[in-house]
Amino acid sequence: MNCLVRKMLFCLTLVALAATAFAAGKVDAELLSKESKHSFHWFPIQKTFILVSPGDTVKFAIGNPYAAVNSNTVELASPPALENGHLWLDSADAVKLFKVAEPVAQSSSAAQSSSSTQPAAESSAAAAVPATAPAEPAAAAATVPAATVPAAPKNETAGTREVKTIVIDPGHGGKDTGAQGKKSNEKDIVLAIGKLLKKELEKEGFNVKMTRDKDEFIELGQRANLANQWDGDLFISLHCNAIDATPERKKQIKGYHVYVLRAPESEEDKAIARRENKVATLYGEKNAKEELSPIEWFKLEARLEKYKQNSYMFTEEMLKAFDGGKIRRQAGGVGGAGFMVLVGALMPAVLFEIGFISNPEDEAYMMTDAGQKDIAKRISKAVSTYKAAVHSYRETLGR
Ligand SMILES: [Zn+2]
Hints:
- By secondary structure, the protein is an alpha/beta fold.
- The chain has helices spanning about 5-20, 30-35, 90-100, 110-115, 185-205, 220-230, 245-250, 265-280, 295-320, 340-345, 360-365, 370-395, and strands at about 20-25, 25-30, 40-45, 50-55, 55-60, 65-70, 70-75, 80-85, 85-90, 165-170, 205-210, 235-240, 255-260, 330-335, 350-355.
- The chain has two domains: about 20-140, Copper Amine Oxidase, Chain A, domain 1; about 165-395, 3-Layer(aba) Sandwich (Aminopeptidase), CATH 3.40.630.
- Helix content is about 40%, strand content about 20%.
- The strands form three sheets. The chain has a six-stranded mixed sheet, sandwiched between helices. Strands 3-4-5-6-7 form a five-stranded antiparallel sheet, with helices on both faces.
C-alpha cells in the first residue's frame, strides 16, 4: 500500500472511530488502539490480542476476565468478546487501561452494522491469559498512561528477540523407523526434507542446526537439550502422520497438521502425541512417558506461556505458506498435545506432521524430489515471514 493511500485510510479510520469505537458500553479494541496510539496484533488461533506502545503491552484473551498489563494481571469489568467480526472491550476497561476519554454513548447498532473486516473466528474460546490464577488483580493496572511509563526493555524472552538460529529436528532415526508407509519410512522422509530445509534456510541467511543429519537414533529429551545448547530461536520437529486402519480409511485420511505443546483438546490429538512419544518408553529413555499428567501440565504452564504466543505466530505462518500446496490441511491443520520432544525446548517450538505416510497420495508426494523440495520451500517461507513478524513486533517495542 502506498503512503498516500495509507494516510487517507488512516483519516477515514479516524472519522469512523468517532462513530463506531464506542458502542453502548463496548469499545472496538482495534479502533481504540488507534486512538490510544498502540499497535494492534490479533492472534486468531490463540484468540488473544495485544495492544502495544513503546512503554506498554496489554494482552487480552477472548472470554477471559483478566488482562496482562506488562507483567501485571488486571481484573476486567467484563471479558473481551468477538462479535460481528470485531473485538470488543468493556468501555470501563478501555477508560481504565488506556486513559481514553469517557465514551460518548451510542447505540450499538452503529457498530453492529459496520462491515466485518476481522477474521470471523468463533467467539467461544479457551482462556489463555493468564495461565495461572492471578494473585493480585486490580491495583496494578489502574494507571498505565502510555506516555509516562518509561520504555525500559523487558526481559528478552525468545518471543521478542531476533530470529537467527533455527533448529530442525528430523524425527526418529536409526533403530526407530517411525511410522511406516507402503514404500517408505517416516525417518527417511523427514531426514530428506530436513536437509533440504536446511539449505533453503541458509540461503535466507539463517543459522541452521539439525538434531540429526544422518540415520541415527537420538532420544527425545536429547533433541531439546541440543536445541537449548545451540540457543535456538525456533524449534521445528518434522514428522509424518499415520493411522492404523482399513485401506479405504487410509485413502481418506490425509493432510498436514501443525502441533504446538499444549493440553490436548481432542482424543485424536492425544493419540498422535502418544504415538510420537512411544519411542521414549519403548527404548527405556529416562523420564519417558506417553502422556503428561494434569500436574505436569500445571508445572509446565508458566514456561509455556513464555513461548506460546510465538509458537502460535509461527503456526499461522505455516498455514499461510502451505495454503495452495499439494498436501492440504487435515482437520483445521492446527492442534496441541503433550509431545515429549517439545517439552524441554526453551524456545518457540512446533511439531509438524507433514502428511500421512499411511495415505498413498501423501506418501507418494513426500517421497518425490519435487514434493520434498516444495515442502522444504514452504516451511522456509513460513520461517522467513515469522521472522519478519517478530521483527516488526520488536520495532513496535522500540528494540
Ligand atoms: Zn513421528
